[in-house]
Amino acid sequence: MKMVYGPVPSRRLGRSLGVNPIPLKTCNYSCVYCQLGRTAHVTNQRQDFFSPEEILGEIRSAIEIKDGRGDGEIDFVTFIGEGEPTLCKSIGWLIRKTREIADVPVAVDTNGSLLYREDVRNDLLQADVVMPSLDAGTAETFRKINRPHHEIGFKKVVEGMEQFRQEYAGEIWLEVMLVKGINDSEKELKAIRSRLEKIKPDRIYINVPIRPPAESWAIPPDKETIALVHAILGDGNVVDIAAEETGEFSIEGFTNPEDAILAITRRHPMREIQVIETLKKFKAGNLHDDLKRLKESGKIKKVKYREKVFWLAVEGKRGKEYE
Ligand code: SF4
């Protein structure tokens, strides 16, 4: 399995089978809080990075494995990407085909930047849930936090989301990522609220960086600020997901522990305890040796972020402070 992974625990989606239709860190943003590191390939060009038929083949296999076991383990098939999934120009075809073969809802986790394009809006109309992000209420903050491709303007992004709301009958679960000192002032939060009033998401999720981000200074706001956020954005539909997720990582499709840990950490920094729990599932060898070998491979490294130890893939570029 290269482009389909999981199911993995998700704070919003339960057990989510992830579909990644684009290469690692290919995005039109380079968010300061991105857990994949700084964007290596900044592009705004939609294309097929991988064969759509191959991606669908992987989805089909993953669904067949689950169906064969009959344990109902998947709550959502989620197009999520190691970057921005709507940059995949066949995403509409993939969503349609997935719905034909899988009896589970389809979600798209997107930065929402391309919703100003009619082709992207049409592609996403077929999903059950679309989860865009909006982290800024003003163009200046948008540039600071999301560091977008030069073709992407704040006005265009917001208008695209408003237009999509008018055309889309499914659920919009919008996420606001809060970073201390960047978008957590009262003024900025009120500006975000005024944008949300027009986008009318069905749910608003408030999130904070909980795993090592691209820039180590991107840290969560203080607790008092989170209360302010609820007061300003909250009208009963704001859900706080700024907590550690629970649940285990699936090792399905992996025959050895190293491959499993490397594949998971490429997409998702893991707390040390999660690495140990995942290694235990292979029931072979000595955990201490496995961890040592992983570190010595030079492909993953241990970092500290906000007093917690994480393991992450070396290939994601981050600030020097992580060296
Ligand atoms: S957080 Fe998402 S939108 Fe932002 S840089 Fe990372 S992959 Fe791109």
TrEMBL record:
Domain annotation Radical SAM core: ranges: 11-248
Named cofactor requirement(s): [4Fe-4S] cluster
Top-level taxon: Archaea
SMART domains from the UniProt entry: Elp3 (SM00729)
Key words, A-Z: 4Fe-4S, Iron, Iron-sulfur, Metal-binding, S-adenosyl-L-methionine
GO molecular function, one term: catalytic activity
SUPFAM superfamilies linked to this entry: Radical SAM enzymes
Metal-binding is among the record's keywords: yes
PROSITE patterns xref list: RADICAL_SAM (PS51918)
Protein name: Radical SAM core domain-containing protein
Source organism of this protein record: Candidatus Argoarchaeum ethanivorans
